[in-house]
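User: I'm new to structure prediction. If I give you an amino acid sequence, what do you actually give back? Let's try with this one:
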Amino acid sequence: MYKLIYFFGPDGTGKTTHADLISTRLKLMGFRVWRTSVKQHHTIAYLLLKLMNLGSYDIQIINYYGFPERLAHRINRLWKMVEFFGLLPAVFYRVYLPMILGYVVVCDRYVLDSLVTLSYFLKEQNSVLGIFARFLVSLIPKSSLLVFFDADTEVIMLRKPNEPLSVELITYYKRMYRILLKIHGLRTEKVNTTDVSIQNVQKKIAFQIKQV
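Assistant: Good question. You get back a string of structure tokens that encode the predicted 3D arrangement of the chain. For your 212 residues, that looks like this:
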């Protein structure tokens, strides 16, 4: 059995739904399952953003689109370090510790999502390259099933009507995920949920799990 089953991709593609369903399926099969998610903005970064929310900043917009230009040039380098050191404890306690304790970890966001989000947040495409990115990618265990979720941009927008998404943002995310996979040579199962039923997506994922 895989130690980590990791669902990643743009928001609105079905990651959380299918991570929940696969977790339930595995539990019914008798496996010890740890259901988790490792999002961006941990610990210090999260607290700083909450403090900013007390001022005149729209925190939801910042979460998606990064800092206003008047702040970005002053804080980008520092923020990258804050995010990096905030992410490591989350990776250990939410993913590695459960694996050490014998759980199958089912995660709907992890290091690839953090890299893509941070690259857009800081307006630095090169954030998916270099030592920083290679280190985070190395935190994906060898015995992992990676499932890349995608869907048509228009469908994603319809599924997330209350979130400040844009065609530009979704297109950027899709492109950066593909760049990450190519650069780091990651093998993944690709699932497009645009017009595929939840049942058929589950069958495809279950089939991949049974191959181990």
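You can read the tokens as a compact description of the fold. Here is one thing that stands out. Residues 4-210 form a domain with the Rossmann fold fold (CATH 3.40.50.300).
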